[in-house]
Design goal:
Layout (H helix, E strand, L loop, with lengths): L3 E6 L3 H12 L3 E7 L5 H7 L3 E3 L2 H6 L5 E4 L3 H13 L3 E4 L7 H14 L3 E3 L7 H11 L6 E9 L6 H5 L4 H17 L3 E9 L11 E8 L4 E7 L7 E8 L2 E5 L8 E4 L2 E4 L6 H4 L1 H17 L7 H20 L3 E2 L30
Parallel strand pairs: 1-2, 1-4, 2-3, 4-5, 5-6, 7-10
Antiparallel strand pairs: 7-11, 8-9, 8-15, 9-10, 11-12, 13-14
Helix pairs in contact: 1-10, 4-5, 5-11, 8-11
Bound molecules: nicotinamide-adenine-dinucleotide.
Nicotinamide-adenine-dinucleotide binds next to helix 1 and helix 4.
Length: about 350
């Protein structure tokens, strides 16, 4: 495979993982890392050919073929527009924007300039979850009818991140909405969400939620999210079908078991997303670079981002209006007037969340 020249825009938690993975790949030249607040110490170790505080320098560099966008979510859409106009192939972290209109605009920009847009739904590339998908696709459990997804963070991210995250459905559960679509190959038609606030430090922020989904074949999915699973980064799926079930549990750094009179003790599962999904983060970039090098469609693209964001918005409507919501009917999925447009809608506030 030919070599591809890639820049990383935004080098916080996610961007560093991406830059370090790219730096290790044989068919990649890490052409630049770009961040207005560069961490000099980290930069000196990563081995990028150029270092920049201004994304315009990346877009102007004709030797750079592709960009990985890992800036905060509020920056994604404008960066995608500019990257597409500069003819760069694009990998963008999830979520692409804060509402379906924003995602659709990003997809249109990529299409209009004829560039690829791959989305950072990294969990599709996790070997365990991929195996679940393969077993289902091979028909081993028959037709799936119930899906359970557990997605819990050990602790909330930094408050500054939370406030710009778009809330639990757009930021966290969006992975699970994508996972349900990925595992079943089905679309979600109806959503019922309940949420609560366990930690009052980010006002209005729902930090635990149940979301029930109905799929287009009548199957049901249940997602449980929390930002307070004190024991680990808890990531599990189970799919029940007409002929059996398939499940994937947590992954631990080692399989060591200590047995003593006090009991049996094993390692806790991974606590940090970049460790639990280390293989997935590397594999999604391998796929991206491979698609760029060979001119292939991305494995996970704009249509997937749009579908997941429509579900997230329907979940938020459901939470606020305390009723099941058809994805096709969610007002947030169809911004009709100005106050619902991205810049006017305050995504931080979810005032309908009861606190306990
Ligand atoms: N796929 C995953 O599992 C996963 C995990 C974490 C974060 N994310 C996503 O990645 C994105 C970044 O999240 P994070 O946790 O790394 O955030 P972060 O706050 O740790 O890092 C963001 C970085 O972007 C920089 N930045 C701000 N504006 C910029 C601009 N215009 N151009 C370039 N850089 C800019 C900031 O200085 C900061 O260093 C978010 O969209 C988030 O949802 C995805």
């Amino acid at each position: 495979v030919r070599s591809v020249s890639v820049a990383v825009i935004g080098t916080g938690r996610a961007g560093r993982v991406h830059a370090e993975n790219l730096a290790r790949m044989r068919n990649v030249r890490l052409a630049a890392v770009c961040d207005p607040l560069l961490d000099e110490q980290w930069v000196s170790g990563v081995g990028a050919a150029h270092v920049s505080r201004d994304a315009d320098e990346v877009f102007a560099d004709r030797a750079i073929e592709a960009v990985v966008i890992a800036a905060p979510t509020r920056e994604h859409l404008q960066l995608i527009r500019r990257a597409a106009a500069a003819g760069k192939q694009i990998f963008c972290e999830k979520p692409v924007a804060f509402d379906p209109a924003g995602v659709a605009e990003a997809v249109a920009a990529a299409r209009d300039y004829g560039v690829m847009l791959q989305i950072g739904f990294n969990r599709r590339f996790d070997p365990t979850f991929r195996r679940v998908r393969e077993r289902i696709a091979a028909g081993e459990i028959g037709e799936p009818n119930i899906v359970h997804v557990v997605d819990r963070d050990p602790r909330p991210p930094a408050r500054a991140f939370l406030e710009g995250s778009g809330g639990i459905f757009r930021d966290l559960a969006i992975h699970d909405f994508d996972m349900v679509r990925y595992l079943t190959g089905r679309e979600v038609v109806e959503v019922y969400a309940l949420g609560m606030t366990l930690d009052g430090s980010a006002p209005g922020e729902v930090d635990a939620a149940f979301t029930t989904l109905r799929l287009d074949n009548g199957a049901l999915a249940q997602i449980t999210n929390s930002r307070h699973a004190v024991y680990c980064y808890d990531q599990r799926v189970e799919v029940l079908g007409s002929r059996g079930s398939v499940a994937a549990g947590n992954v631990s750094p080692s399989s060591t078991v200590v047995m003593s009179a006090a009991g049996v003790r094993r390692d806790a599962p991974f606590e940090v997303f970049s460790e639990r999904f280390a293989q997935a983060f590397a594999a999604e970039l391998h796929a991206f670079v491979g698609s760029v090098a060979e001119g292939r469609e991305p494995e996970v693209g704009g249509a997937d981002a749009l579908a997941a964001m429509r579900i997230a918005c329907a979940a938020e409507t459901s939470l606020c209006e305390r009723r099941p919501v058809a994805v096709a009917d969610s007002p947030l999925c169809h911004p009709k007037d100005d106050h619902q447009k991205e810049e006017h809608h305050d995504h931080r506030r979810q005032p309908c969340a009861p606190s306990i």
